[in-house]
């Protein structure tokens, strides 16, 4: 019987959740793409085709692909789940009492499939077919959003991440992404695939204000052997790392958390944009960011709910010790300094390992892919001219929910 368990970054990948870009990308425009955390507008049809190639490549490797849209629509078929989600996403304090009632009444008339499209892709005033007595319609432009689109759902890695025998429903850093977590909260609570399974929830089981304790899955690497590697980036805070570590230890799901202090800029918004695990002893690293002088700490379970924090001299030494490996094999981004910077920006280091030594990455990163090949790492190439414009590669676009350990 399959189970919800992710024991490593490199063990055989069995089941994964993706989100095919659709309605939300149609709502991405030159006037709003920065607020929605993209660097450009995308060619929607081409982005969908590229994503289909990604899913096809995964299925070709024997990986079961679950699509977020389907999971959400199937969850909305459960009345309790639908009511809870509408309470969260169309509340009276978000839209005002009267307008919330009118919008909710309209959404209740839609099929589960249509409602999933709107919750994921947004609803503008121009698409709302009713006239409300509320002030809201008169005070907004027709192209304003009643429900904001969520194009970053494309990057399923961040919103929730499975770590050993449980999941963290992540408190997201940016307002443009915070509603995403409610969709995953509903899916993991009510969808039959998850409701019938036993797993731990580390963060986010209940709706609460996590204040400064923020975590995003792109910063969380389950490196195996009871160890978790976490980057403290512009999206994941020390408070978030400590909260996650305490919960992992409380549930007996990890022995140690290695936390690295990353520069706070967009080119390395998450740890997995500058470092990923490719084989038992092999990591891909962008050396301009992953320098030896980065501050690093080891968090360990001190018992009775306490955490022992120790600063360590070098993150690679901490990883070697955690994995009981004498020396790691490091493959740096390919090309000269200009080519390497360009390829890192285009997610050359953000690969998804499907089994030891076999990874999926964008075909356009020719210099880095060539280095991987020469080092014995097989790259399964996928197109990414459009998908990469959201600053995320194959690892960012995938949420493993079942993977073997080391």
TrEMBL record:
It comes from the Bacteria. It is found in: Cytoplasm. Its EC number is 3.5.3.6. Pfam families: ADI. Pathway: Amino-acid degradation; L-arginine degradation via ADI pathway; carbamoyl phosphate from L-arginine: step 1/2. It is an enzyme of class 3 (hydrolase). GO terms for cellular component: cytoplasm. It catalyses: L-arginine + H2O = L-citrulline + NH4(+). Signal peptide: none annotated. One of its GO terms (molecular function) is arginine deiminase activity. InterPro entries: Arg_deiminase. Keywords: Arginine metabolism, Cytoplasm, Hydrolase. One of its GO terms (biological process) is L-arginine deiminase pathway. Belongs to the arginine deiminase family. This is Arginine deiminase. The gene is arcA.
């Amino acid at each position: 019987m399959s189970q919800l368990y992710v024991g490593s970054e490199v063990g055989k990948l069995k089941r994964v959740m993706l989100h095919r870009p659709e309605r939300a990308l149609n709502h991405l425009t030159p006037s709003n793409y920065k607020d929605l955390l993209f660097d450009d507008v995308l060619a929607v049809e081409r982005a969908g085709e590229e994503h289909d190639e990604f899913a096809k490549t995964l299925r070709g490797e024997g990986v079961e692909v679950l699509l977020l849209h389907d999971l959400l629509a199937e969850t909305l078929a459960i009345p309790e789940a639908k009511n809870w989600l509408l309470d969260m996403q169309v509340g009276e304090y978000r839209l005002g009492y009267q307008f919330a009632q009118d919008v909710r009444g309209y959404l209740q008339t839609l099929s589960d499939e249509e409602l999933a499209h709107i919750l994921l892709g947004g609803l503008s005033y121009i698409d709302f077919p009713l006239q409300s007595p509320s002030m809201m319609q008169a005070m907004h432009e027709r192209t304003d959003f009643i429900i904001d689109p969520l194009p970053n759902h494309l990057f399923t890695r961040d919103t929730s991440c499975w770590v050993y025998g449980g999941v963290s429903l992540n408190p997201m850093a940016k307002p443009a992404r915070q509603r995403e977590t409610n969709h995953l909260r509903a899916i993991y609570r009510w969808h039959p695939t998850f409701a019938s399974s036993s797993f731990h929830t580390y963060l986010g089981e209940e709706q609460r204000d996590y204040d400064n304790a923020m975590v995003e899955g792109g910063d969380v690497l389950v490196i195996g052997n009871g160890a978790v590697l976490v980057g403290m980036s512009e999206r994941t805070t020390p408070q978030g790392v400590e909260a996650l570590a305490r919960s992992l230890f409380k549930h007996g799901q990890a022995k140690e958390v290695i936390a690295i202090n990353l520069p706070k800029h967009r080119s390395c918004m998450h740890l997995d944009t500058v470092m990923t695990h490719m084989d038992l002893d092999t990591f891909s690293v962008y050396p301009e960011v992953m320098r030896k002088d980065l501050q690093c700490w080891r968090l360990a379970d001190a018992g009775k709910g306490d955490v022992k924090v120790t600063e360590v001299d070098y993150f690679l030494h901490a990883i070697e010790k955690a994995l009981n490996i004498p020396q790691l094999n490091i493959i740096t981004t390919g090309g000269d300094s200009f080519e390497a910077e360009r390829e890192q920006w285009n997610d050359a280091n953000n690969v998804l390992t499907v089994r030891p030594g076999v990874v999926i990455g964008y075909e356009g990163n020719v210099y880095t892919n060539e280095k991987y090949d020469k080092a014995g790492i097989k790259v399964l190439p996928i197109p990414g001219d459009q998908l990469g414009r959201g600053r995320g590669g194959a690892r960012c676009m995938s949420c493993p929910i079942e993977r073997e350990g080391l």
